[in-house]
Design a protein that fits this description.
The protein has 378 residues and is an alpha/beta fold. It contains twelve helices and twelve strands. It folds into two domains: 243 residues, Aspartate Aminotransferase, domain 2 (3-Layer(aba) Sandwich); 120 residues, Aspartate Aminotransferase, domain 1, CATH 3.90.1150. It has a seven-stranded mixed β-sheet with strand order 1-9-8-5-4-2-3, sandwiched between helices. The chain has a three-stranded antiparallel β-sheet with strand order 10-11-12.
Length: 378
């Protein structure tokens, strides 16, 4: 069986490092906050080239607390994509705001930036671009729009840890070489769900920003509204969203390997593209400078039949995402209907994600490619 993701292989590779680091944390006896969490926050901020990183207990909480700290609430509207995981919209709705969807583009499944302005109203307060599958959205155009209409930008970078725009020379975002996902908007939100490029051994998340005041406010919100200096003085109503020290320990070890792992993902994607390029039934993803391939997702004719065939061949594949957010039963009260976002809906019927992780053996990948080609020959 070729699993869609095999974390056992990853952990076998770094087992000694993980065990040594966990032993030290266990002996230290601090499991909520503490030195390991503080060190991880600083290391992650440096990795993302931002001033501040505030850890939380999930990527969903990262989005929720980011919006909450920006003052998003009842009656506000937040623009985002209908083609992603529901956590993005859960954060909007749980703040009391309305999600306003904009269709995706056909090239990379990200929000179609040229349709955003038409969705802006006097109630619009923020844009959440989702860097889907590891490919960064067009942040240059998004920041232009945000500045024009005085909107906040919250980057949902859960699937794009380590993604980087290599060359930027724009009047809308800081002139810099090598801008990382999560460093361009007002806030960046990350998930450390185990399947992510940088995954914990459980849930975890982090928020990045260059705004000191905002970082301090997020820190209050995530810790019952109290500061670390005065634990029992609550300055605002917050929640409990703290990263465990054990998860921080694991993430510190894995962060050292992340750039190499992302390079390996890109290499695997290139092999897929090269060997599937001449199949007219498959549309492979474009490999850009900023893609880190949390998922390798193709558009496939006879997608469901291909998925069933791959399962028969003992190859696990996934569909991200079979139901667009505007058609989810949980969001029916917002009044969206089938046909509102045709590109997203078409993608939901075509997409198939193939195994891609740094430890995928060459022979395994060759077998996957062989079986895809066999299916379309039949």
């Amino acid at each position: 069986m070729i699993n869609f993701l095999d974390l056992k292989k990853q952990h076998n590779f770094i087992r000694k490092e993980i065990n040594k680091a966990l032993k030290e944390t266990l002996e230290g006896g601090v499991f909520i906050g503490g030195v390991e969490v503080e060190k991880f926050e600083k290391e992650f901020a440096k990795f993302c080239k931002v001033k501040y990183a505030v850890s939380v207990n999930s990527g969903t909480d990262a989005l929720f607390l980011a919006l909450k700290s920006l003052g998003i609430g009842q009656g506000d509207e937040v623009i985002t994509t209908p083609f992603t995981f529901i956590a993005t919209v859960e954060a909007i709705v749980n703040c009391g705001a309305r999600p306003v969807f904009v269709d995706i583009n056909t090239n990379d499944f990200n929000i179609d930036v040229y349709k955003i302005e038409k969705a802006i109203t006097e109630k619009t307060k923020a844009i959440i671009p989702v860097h889907l599958f590891g490919q960064m959205a067009d942040m240059d155009e998004i920041m232009r729009i945000a500045r024009k209409y005085k909107l906040y930008v919250v980057e949902d970078a859960a699937q794009a840890i380590g993604a980087e725009i290599k060359f930027v020379n724009s009047q809308y975002i800081r002139k810099f070489v090598g801008l990382k996902a999560g460093s361009i908007g007002d806030v960046g939100c990350f998930s450390f769900f185990p399947s992510k490029n940088l995954g914990a051994m459980g849930d975890g998340g982090i928020i990045t920003t260059n705004n000191k005041r905002l970082a301090e406010k997020i820190r209050l919100f995530k810790n019952h509204g109290s500061s670390e200096k005065d634990k029992y003085k609550n300055l605002l109503i917050g929640i409990n969203s703290r990263l465990d020290a054990i998860q921080a320990t694991v993430l510190r070890v894995k962060l050292k390997h992340l750039e190499n792992w992302n390079k390996k993902r890109r290499s695997i994607a290139e092999i897929y593209n090269k060997n599937l390029a001449n199949l007219k039934e498959i549309k492979t993803p474009k490999i850009t400078n900023s893609h880190v391939f949390n998922c390798y997702t193709v558009r496939a004719k006879k997608r469901n039949e291909l998925k069933a065939y791959m399962k028969k061949m003992s190859i696990e594949t996934k569909i991200y995402y079979p139901i667009c957010l505007h058609l989810q039963p949980a969001l029916k009260n917002f009044g969206y209907r089938l046909g509102d976002f045709p590109e997203a809906e078409k993608s939901a019927n075509q997409v198939l994600s193939l195994p891609i992780y740094p430890e995928l053996f060459e022979a395994e990948q060759n077998f996957i490619i062989k079986k895809i080609r066999e299916f379309y020959k039949k």
